[in-house]
Design brief:
There is one protein chain. By secondary structure, the chain is mainly alpha-helical. Helices cover about 70% and strands about 0% of the residues. It has one domain. It is built from three helices and no strands. The two termini are about 20 Å apart.
Length: about 55
């Protein structure tokens, strides 16, 4: 969301809902990859799927 806002403010780009969802999914995947191995990221991945599948 922050990147979409910055894109709008600084680059005069308006991202549609699909683009914002893709940015959110990419950001979540990045953080899931950085999580320590002792943390189960499956709940995060499942939550991400519910956010992405809002159609």
């Amino acid at each position: 969301m922050w990147k979409a806002r910055n894109s709008m403010i600084f680059n005069n780009e308006r991202l549609n809902d699909d683009a914002i969802v893709r940015l959110l999914q990419d950001h979540i995947n990045l953080w899931a990859c950085r999580a320590p191995r002792c943390i189960d990221v499956e709940p995060l991945n499942l939550w991400c799927q519910t956010v992405v599948d809002v159609n």
